[in-house]
Amino acid sequence: MNLSGLLAQLLEILIALALAPLLTGWVNQWRAWLQNKSAPPLTQPYRKLHKLFHKELVLAEQASPLYRAVPYIVFGCMALACAIIPSLSTDLPLSPAADAVALVGLFALARVFLSLAAMDVGTAFGTLGARREMLIGFLAEPALLMVLFSASLLSRSTSLTTIVDQFAHRELAIYPSLAFAGVAFTLVSLAENARIPVDNPATHLELTMVHEALLLEYSGRHLALLEWAASLKLFAYSCAGLALFFPWGVADARTPQALLLALPLLVFKLAVGGALLALLETASAKMRIFRVPEFLGTAFLLAVIGMLVNILLGA
Fold first, then answer.
1. Is-contact 84 159, C-beta < 8 A?
2. How many angstroms separate the CA atoms of 149 and 184, rounded?
3. Among 194, 196, 193, 192, which Cα is nearest to 285's?
4. Is the N-terminal amide bond of 197 cis, ω within 30° of 0?
5. Burial class (CB within 10 angstroms; exposed 0-12, middle 13-18, buried 19+) of 187
């Protein structure tokens, strides 16, 4: 294990932990600006985490050890997902584990444990949110796999580092398969991160909320870890999208000095992506829950079309 790779891996984890709440605050600011509202401070997510970490922890009487352990499991899964996505460099000690199937598996593992915890205390809204979350995951995960497989067909590998390394050093060209996959990835990321039109991260209406219903019984440091994990998930999806479709600027094993340029370029791309996400949410309306299968079915269909275009046309 070389020193530069270890440094890049450690830097990726620290950057993810530090910038994930900032990305959430940036998106919230742009949503407020686009809706002609007074925007919250950019550091509001950090203040919220600080407040929650210092609040008293309250547990339900029926809570099992699983309920207490889930916040740490979910946070660990999201931190590991951010670590295996090559956002700054492809020279990572975790490269052998940075497989497309492993990434989807981490997201699925976190979802299953969070849904089990929501049903653990036996509340009506927790069970309702868990069922809706599993429905969304059941439809989103195959679409995400098809998107990653479309990229792996072009690079002849399911390793994320190999995909990014090959895409970053190819000549600039338009690949129809990646165009279909990019649209599908956008739809999946909206659903997976509880964004409009699938879910509203700011809502507390019992009949419409999905992700918030899973967190109703949590408080204190447990709620802080889950909120931080939600920001890490948004950060992971953003970095995965940038790595697959805009990989330029990611350092590789041959040029470790490029890490100095990779970080500001990553921040710039995340800033642009966060603004576009806020614009997309502002221009969309919250759909009813029974329309979500059609929404994610469209994402899966687009991803499959991307794969077929690649197989038939080689582009």
1. no
2. 12
3. 196
4. yes
5. buried
Mean pLDDT of 260-279: 91
Six token digits for residue 42? 């950019």
Contact at 8 Å (CB) between 178 and 146? no
Pick from 86, 84, 139, 83: which is nearest to 111 by CA?
Answer: 139
**Phi/psi at 159 (5° precision):** -75, 130
Report the amino acid identity of residue 107: F
Work out the average pLDDT over 202-215.
76
Distance CA 209, CA 229 (A): 18
- Bridge partners, 251 (sequence order): 89
Query: 179 is written with which tokens?
Result: 């165009």
**Helical segments of 121-174, H only:** 124-155, 160-168
- Biggest alpha carbon distance in the chain? 60
Distance CA 31, CA 280 (A): 9
* Spatial distance between the Cα atoms of 60 and 142, rounded to a whole number of angstroms: 35
The pLDDT tens digits of the residues spanning 24-58 come to 999 999 999 998 988 889 999 999 999 999 998 88
DSSP string computed for 241-260: HHHHH--TT-B-TT-GGGHH
Residue 189 to residue 214: CA distance in whole angstroms = 19
Q: How high is the pLDDT of residue 217?
A: 87
- Joined together, the tokens standing for residue 140 give 């989103």
* Angle at 150 (CA atoms; ends 144, 152), nearest 5 degrees: 105
Residue partners of 290: CB distance under 8 A and separation at least 6? none
**Six-digit token pair at 261?**
């340029």
Phi, psi of 278 (to 5 degrees): -65, -40
pLDDT at 1 over 60: no
What is the spatial distance between Cα 20 and Cα 11, in angstroms, rounded to a whole number?
14
In terms of C-beta density within 10 A (0-12 exposed, 13-18 middle, 19 or more buried), how is residue 67 classed? buried
Q: Are 171 and 202 in contact (CB under 8 A)?
A: no
Calpha distance 238→19 (Å, rounded): 12
- CA geometry: angle at 38 spanning 32 and 44, to 5°? 75
